[in-house]
Amino acid sequence: MVKVEARELSVALGRREVVRGVSFAAGRGLVGVLGPNGAGKSTLVRALLGLVPHAGEVRLDETPIARLTRAEIARRVAYLPQGQTLHWPLTVERLVALGRLPHLAPFSRLDEADRTAIEHAMARTEVTALRHRTATELSGGERARVLLARALAVEAPALIADEPLSSLDPAHALHGMELLRAEADAGRLVLAVLHDLTLAARFCDRLLVLHDGALVADGAPGDVLSAELLARVYGVRAFIADDPPLRVPLARIVDGANAAT
Questions:
Q1: Burial of 77 (0-12, 13-18, 19+ CB in 10 A)
Q2: Could you give the number of structural domains in the chain?
Q3: Domain shared by 60 and 184, yes or no
Q4: Strand pairing of 55-60 and 158-162?
Q5: How does pLDDT run across 159-191, given as a tens digit for each residue?
Q6: Are 242 and 146 in the same domain?
Q7: How many angstroms separate the CA atoms of 149 and 93, rounded?
Q8: Is Nucleotide-binding a UniProt keyword of this protein (predicted)?
Q9: Which helix (H) or strand (E) holds 227?
Q10: Does 244 sit behind a cis peptide bond, omega within 30 degrees of 0 on the bond before it?
Q11: How far apart are CA 216 and CA 78, in angstroms?
């Protein structure tokens, strides 16, 4: 188990403070990070990995992340970035195999444990049949599944996934959430940036909601995703049900009035 903690975490990009004084700690379960476009979600998760300069402090298992090497962080926390562009014409199998790099010594080769992890990750994400395809020639949805397989192949005790459902059709989006749920149920920490409110309500144990860079809600989905919060943060009127959990935006709220989308 890995514990990730942010203490008064702030990030400025240029003259704009994108993340403002965010504090939370998480050690296990599926934690969704929600918020409208530009709320600071991707910047927050990058700061948690030490990928952007920040004020405040990030700790990984009580150790300030600034004291850890990139290899140490990569072995503890697998990272699936948002909308990653592929530049090299690798096969799917070789791309997924990159997930094992944090465990390899320089100039070493994959061993049986590495190959087992790669095969298991491809099978779980249902991309085994694509193994010999060139990754740069895949559709957006296929590429998203392959990149999730690469992150799962790391077999790290924590996973941070930035919009892992991007480009996925409804069936594969459900499957993606089932995989993240399974990782959490196995005792791992999964922190996922999400936009689908219903999937977040259905699958997540806890939600962190950002608005204008600040953490404005932190708690169980049923408590967090209220009509008031959806109106204030997203500017929408939504249909809300709890059995099964549903949060369906119905109309935008413009100047206090509802406007059809």
A1: buried
A2: 2
A3: yes
A4: unpaired
A5: 999 999 988 999 999 999 999 999 999 999 999
A6: no
A7: 10
A8: yes
A9: helix 227-229
A10: yes
A11: 26
Q: Cα(231)–Cα(165) distance, rounded to whole angstroms?
A: 24
**Consecutive H or E run containing 254:** strand 245-254
Residue given tokens 């320089």 in the structure block: 106
C-alpha distance across the termini of the chain, in Å: 43
Give tens-digit pLDDT for 203-218: 999 999 999 999 999 9
**pTM assigned to the model:** 0.93
Q: Which domain holds residue 120?
A: 4-225
In terms of domains, do 245 and 201 share one?
no
Query: pLDDT tens digit string along 55-77?
Result: 999 999 999 999 999 999 999 99
Q: Judge if 13 and 111 occupy the same domain.
A: yes
Q: At 245, which amino acid appears?
A: P
Tokens at residue 222, please? Answer: 């049923």
Token pair listed for 12? 């400025």
**Cα torsion 172, 133, 160, 104: sign:** positive
CB 207 within 8 A of CB 24: no
